[in-house]
# Entry
Amino acid sequence: MNETSQSDEIIKKPVKPGCCLAEAVVAGFLFFILGLILMGNYLIASDPPKNVDAIVILSGAESDRIPEAARLYAEGYSDTIILTDTGLSKTPTPGTEESPIDPNGIKTRELAGMGVPISNIILPGDVVSSTTGEAEAVLETMQKQRMESAMIVTDPYHTRRAKIVFDSIFRDSGIDLRMHPVDGHWFRPFTWWLHPEGWKYALLEYSKLLYQFLSGN
# Structure
């Protein structure tokens, strides 16, 4: 058999279907993981920290956000902290003497215990129930205080939507806003999907982003 015949035999040798299937499965899995990483990465909006007039703590998951804001305060990024007000988290049961819980009172005491004087904590007057309401309340407060810059502290998965909302509300204010995701948070682009809570919050954020897009808000 000459060289040409041997070459033809090699070229005509059939490829095993199982080999192609395995390669396709591996490629599909890698693309799936890449998609999850991109999903997580998009939700996180982060600006380099710098000195600002106020550090703003958005309501929710305060066990992470409060210590982060207190750390930023201690490092000298601002001497003022603004807490958004979501009202009473628990109302008394009718016919009982159960006392309502004031979440901002609790948060204020926690911040004080971390070295932030109560006199340096501002509570907007409006009670709100959404990120849009928080942005409006913070804008009104900052304008009254003649503040020109703020750092928004929230969970990483919430920063993209918070940035979109705050940028829209603050558009013509001239106030410089910086998004600051909680440092060392469990929600990270490469691993968020390994946490059951990661799926919950990621899908919730994307559903709210889609609603904002469709409603034009």
In short: DSSP finds seven helices and five strands in the chain.
